[in-house]
Amino acid sequence: MCQNFKVIYVKVINVSAFFLFLLLADSFSQSSIVSRQSMQSRILNQTIGYSVIFPIGYDKNQQSYPVIYLLHGIGGDGNSWIKRCNIDRLVDSLKECSLISDFIFIMPDAKNSYYINNYNKTFSYENFFINELIPYIESTYRIKASKENRAIMGLSMGGFGAVLLGIKHPDVFGTVVSMSGALRDSLAFVNIPQTKYNVYFKDVYGPDLTGQQRITQHWKENSPYYLIDSTLVENLKTINWYFDCGQSDSLYPNVELFHQLLLKYKIPHEYHSRPGKHNWEFWYTTSVNALMYYTNILRKKTDTDIDL
After folding, report:
1. What's the CA gap between 300 and 308, in Å, rounded?
2. What's the confidence (pLDDT) of residue 231?
3. Residue 279 lies inside a defined structural domain of this protein
4. Are 92 and 100 in contact (CB under 8 A)?
5. Distance separating alpha carbons of residues 120 and 124, to the nearest angstrom
6. Per-residue DSSP letter, 149
């Protein structure tokens, strides 16, 4: 059982901010297995790396597990959650206290793709993710390959990607978690400073676009705001939605706006607005809550199955 919890502050290499890090006072008797892997993508015509966290005991049994696809933010990669958040240690801590279930975590490299097919189809990341990555992962590892056992979670750019992939593929994901998601509406996207646009968005949405020129058909086809207007809302109600954003985050007004859009269409979701910024301290605590949220969903389903 879980005893002697303590809260300490840890400074992680390359992270300027101190963030809350929850650990057991005593060392773990066992730890999750972390592995760095890669796969060859025919769609992207290159090798794509990804990191995996296997639950304790994976190498000693034949059990299958729910999966969480964990998406990084802009400038990150498949190692970001491990290097900057110690997500494997967090998982061990929560599991030691029986607060979460066993999961397999898949953390793919996505560059700065925003998890979409880019404007000229030279980097069709959405197609890769849905048509290559998921089938490959779920045929390679012992995963319960069903909608209810498949979650997608992400922060910032990854929070946008989780929402967009959930909306566009409601038959694939049972749970979507967006942490400080970059859920910009058309006004916010138009007002991105040109220098920032040229660095982060020109390869995704098209170069040399200013102001209203940025609201292209391609942008609309990859905007959660436009897609919800044209998507069968009932399909989105089959997903468990979880949102969290800090009130001092520059993206907060848009996350709040998206929350209001879901309310308008009566799409059930869990939404948290609390003090915090766009940083790893905030995402660490969100990760704790989100993993417990997903665990509770799976445990409720199990209880229902047993009752039947």
Report:
1. 12
2. 73
3. yes
4. no
5. 9
6. G
Report which secondary-structure segment, H or E, holds 262. helix 252-264
Backbone angles phi, psi at 23, to 5 degrees: -140, 155
Distance (Å) of CA 265 to CA 219, 255, 269: 22, 16, 11
DSSP letter at 65 equals B
Report the DSSP beta bridge partners of residue 21: 8
Q: Is 147 helix (H, G, I), strand (E, B) or coil?
A: helix
CA angle 52, 243, 65 (to 5 degrees): 30
Write the pLDDT tens digit of every residue in 7-35.
333 333 233 333 344 444 344 557 899 99
Domain annotation covers residue 271: yes
The three-point CA angle 296-81-130 to 5° equals 70
Q: Helix, strand, or coil here: 201?
A: coil
Does any domain span residue 211?
Answer: no
List phi, psi (to 5°) of 160.
-65, -45
- CATH at 171: 3.40.50.1820
Whether the predicted model's global pTM rises above the 0.85 cut: yes
- pLDDT tens, position by position, 72-109: 999 999 999 999 999 999 999 999 999 999 999 999 99
Number of other CB atoms surrounding residue 103 within 10 Å: 24
Domain that holds residue 105: 32-185+223-307
Q: Tell me the one-letter amino acid at 117.
A: N
- The verdict on residue 217 lying in a domain is no
Distance, in Å, from the CA atom of 134 to the CA atom of 120, rounded to the nearest integer, reads: 23
- The residue among 20 and 290 whose pLDDT is bigger is 290
5 touches 97 (CB < 8 A): yes
Q: Dihedral of CA 141/126/79/9: which sign?
A: negative
The residue type at 113? S
User: 118, 142 in Cβ contact below 8 A?
Assistant: no
How many domains does the structure of the chain reveal?
A: 1
